[in-house]
Amino acid sequence: MSAYKPHNRDPHFGDAYVVARPMGLGRALQKAGYGTRKAAEAIVLAGRVTVDGAGRKDPKSMVDRNSVILVDGQPLRKVQKVHMVLNKPVRALCTARDGDDGPLVADLLPRHIPGLRPVGRMDARNTGLLLISNDKDWNTLVGECGDLEHEYRVQVEGELTDLEVSVISAGLNIPKLGMFKPLSVRIVEVLNGRTVLNIVLTRGKVRQLRRMFSTLRHKIIYLRRIRIGDVRLGNLAPGALRALSSREVQILRNLASRKPR
């Protein structure tokens, strides 16, 4: 697990966190924003927490509003909510469960900001825009919204014919995966026997996209997400991060809060 060193002047930490009611130590860290329950408990189990001057390694040991809690020698503070964009490189894994032959997205994130997690999942083969945040409610709202537009830049082998573009636009019934119909398809360029397209989908349709091109006998060279809602990848380098503006955060929240069409 990534280590971090909270500091009184760290801008990602607010005022000292006050435990509102008696609860387990691991739960108190989770409530303060130090990640998932598992991540918060791991901090306690690692011996990084003291309560009233004494080390505690039991995540279930009780604390209350009068407890003096230190993490890595610093007062327990409420972690401010952070929202970022990562340009995920190829082979980077969102979780260890996705495979064991590539680096983890977590290794690309700032270690001094607790609780950062990918919003949703992205296959190791795919690259591009991946939202990152420690804002649990925002992550859930945006990550589970099936109505947000996701735009992909796709390069495939071969030159797509007008008929094939028409078939893709009209939609295909993919065996075992159901109907696949992009919101829009646009050819960007055809060069040296390859075709580059921009395809707009809703969440959860990337498998169908890959299967569709396989059915049409066009091998995908690369598949890169370049937009979610109004948030764009731009010229962000692979493996690099940038902070979302407050406007971008709110726009995604508003889009994800809309009732399904």
What proportion of the residues form beta strands (DSSP E)? 25-35%
Q: Main beta sheet: strand number and arrangement?
A: 9 strands, mixed
Q: CATH class of the largest domain, anyone?
A: Alpha Beta
- Residues in helix, %: 10-25%
Question: Please, how many domains?
Answer: 3
DSSP E strands, number: 19
Shape: elongated
Distance between the termini: 41 Å
Q: What's the CATH topology label of the largest domain?
A: Alpha-Beta Plaits
Indicate the CATH architecture of the largest domain: 2-Layer Sandwich
Question: Low-confidence spans: pLDDT under 50, at least 5 residues?
Answer: 1-9
CATH superfamily membership of the largest domain: Pseudouridine synthase I, catalytic domain, N-terminal subdomain
Computed structural class: alpha+beta
Order of helices and strands: EEHHEEEEEEEEEHEHEEEEHEEEH
Number of helices: 6
Q: What's the pLDDT, averaged over the residues?
A: 88
The Rg value, from CA coordinates, equals 22 Å
